[in-house]
Amino acid sequence: MSVDQTRGRSTDHLAHVVMIAGAAALGGFLFGYDTSVINGAVGAIQENFGVGAALTGVTVAAALLGSALGAAIAGGIADRIGRTRVMQVAAVLFIISAIGSALPFTVWDLAWWRIVGGVAVGIASMIGPAYIAEVAPAAYRGRLGSLQQLAIVLGIAVSQLVNYALAASAGGSASAQLGPLDTWQWMLAVEAVPALIYLVLASVIPESPRFLVRAGRIDQARGVLQRIESEDADTKIEEIRNALGGERKTRLSDLRGKFGVLPIVWVGMAIAALQQFVGINVIFYYSSTLWQSVGVEESNSLLLSLFTSIVNIIGTIVAIALVDKIGRKPLLVVGSLGMTIALALTGWAFSYANVVDGETTLPFEWGALALVSASAFVFFFAASWGVVMWVLLGEMFPSRIRAAALALGTATNWIANWVVTVTFPSMQAWNLPVTYFIYAAFALISLFFVVRYLKETKGRSLEEMGTS
Question: What GO molecular functions are on record for this protein (predicted)?
């Protein structure tokens, strides 16, 4: 075979992998949309059901408990029925949640439907990185794994755009009537459309070759590998078999180590928790009400939320361009340093807010600083931890424990997300500047943790993970 033919074959394989990885990443889009769409509806939900800050926090965070559950069970299910089947289950749950959330009778059944959607988010957040890592060539795995985070931030941006467009159509308020439903109900219902598309795509993409080898479906695995890998399929199958260490399905008990779980699993769990403890999802769940709390009008606060999502997308594109060039660890170090400074500046700016007759305002110069520093925080997060955490969880564990370890790491991420989300309304009411200083402290901790404990994974095949 000539050099040109080899190069052409490799290009064809990569194009095919990009297409199926993109289809799998649509679960990330729904992840981003579902977790962020509530942002534009928070105020309307409070008004419609007459609930305070604490119960609002519980309702918003309810989905995150479902996400932790979904992430925890997804690995075991994926090892039993396959990666693509699990995607289909998640898609159906997304559709059910979207319809149920849009038509609640009380705040409690709204919370229940949010939990159902959360289970779907948890499953999608685990299965997307796992599937993409298992079909991607080592040289491109970082960039292809980054498609998950790109899809997440696009989902966040689209949810903000939909929220803004719907509110604008109803006169600028999410509480206003728009046809037979309130505007906030339409915000939640729209999710059923991309969920249906996800269901269709998950039904046509090929199963992971590593799952097929584990399940003993060698002929199917060979067929998939011939479409996605440029090297000999039989050689790759033997390599996968050796890395799996037998045909037994992974159990959570396989993760046990001297200090509860294996050291590599502790590192993954810590990375997953620290990604949330910097407070990133406060920006996406509460940014509208956050800006309103310092005197910004509702319509403008929704526009600022959309601007934040655009910054998020730009940062993610930067990470995708760099993750396979400079590596995972350097990106995390730069991101942690940038987030620490940006969060500290945001807290400092909010400390100058004035309250007069119950109305909160922020002087222009401090409002400008808050906007710039909050946007810088989002950029540094998106260009580092937003992408790299998901890439690492998909690739850092040995093949024999990957599904179970990834499920535990993802569940940890969602539990940390829940802790931050449910506590923020009360912390905001207590002391907003100090809240941001606490997030800055976690960003600084993340810097020291990465330098001390994280090993670089750039350029290594999945079968090499855990060998040194």
Answer: transmembrane transporter activity
DSSP string, 132-195: HHHHS-GGGHHHHHHHHHHHHHHHHHHHHHHHHHHHHHTTS-TTSEETTEEHHHHHHHTTHHHH
Strands 177-178 and 181-182: antiparallel
Q: What is the CATH number of the domain that holds 45?
A: 1.20.1250.20
Contacts of 273 (CB under 8 A, 6+ apart): 412, 413, 415, 416
Inside any domain, residue 410: yes
In a domain, 225, yes or no: no
Q: What is the pTM of this model?
A: 0.73
185, 271: one domain? no
Rounded to 5 degrees, φ, ψ at 146 are -70, -20
Q: Which domain holds residue 371?
A: 253-467
The residue among 205, 222, 237 that closes a domain is 205
Find the farthest-apart pair of alpha carbons in the chain and give their distance in angstroms, rounded: 79
> Who's near 250: CB < 8 A, 6+ residues apart?
75, 76, 79, 400, 401, 402, 403, 404
